[in-house]
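W.,

You were right to be curious about this one. When I first looked at the sequence I had no strong expectations either way, so I just let the prediction run and decided to look at it fresh. Below is the sequence, 234 residues in total, followed by the output.
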Amino acid sequence: MASPRKFYNNPFTICIEGNIGSGKTTFLNHFQNFNNATILQEPVDLWRNVTGVNLLDLLYKDPVNYAFLFQSYAQLTRLKLHTLSTPSPYKVMERSIFSARCFLENMKRTNMIRDVEVVVLEKWYDWCLENTNIRADLIVYLRTTPEVVYQRMQARARKEEDSVSLEYLRQIHEIHDDWLYRKTLFSLPAPVMIVDGDKSLEEMVPQFEKCKDRILKEKTDGTSNTTIVLNTKA
């Protein structure tokens, strides 16, 4: 008789962070064949169909009216992924509830949402951290210049991203840099591994291998202030 499958309530959690088009999905796909890691992509399909409503599309087309609603739902769906038990000792996530604050910060800076909406979302975020099991053991930051991600976004031609401007991508890039590169914005929940995301896929593969080796063999050997910058030279 087969033994029950083991589930991990506290898997070692790696959060893949970066701008739109920075290569997060490509990075995740590189781990698909590793049998002791559970890969959790961003829940875009849920955002595209909330009882038949494409909330992601509404966010980009009419952010003033839909930013608060989208951000509320995005935080909920991210929380569900964070608290999900996995059949593997490692969990690799595309973005996290922590990076949701980057998009909220941009909404604040650009006056996209009202002050009272900011307060509600921040209180909801704080409650999640204090009352749920949200784990992050390592952050991999795919640091990619806005011009590169804009070109990639144009090439993949997702319908919802038609209205995303280069200026918006620059804003998101600066906030991620403030958080993960300059470390002047939010506290870091885990050590940070910085990867040059401007490289082509062929050039990135060796970097993915270095990340995988460190993540899956060593887990972590630093503190919350550790930053690992991978050498991207051939």
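Here's what jumped out at me. Confidence is low (pLDDT under 50) at residues 220-225, 227-234. And, maybe more interesting for your project: Strands lie at 12-17, 37-40, 90-94, 138-143, 192-196, 227-229.

Coffee later to discuss?

I.
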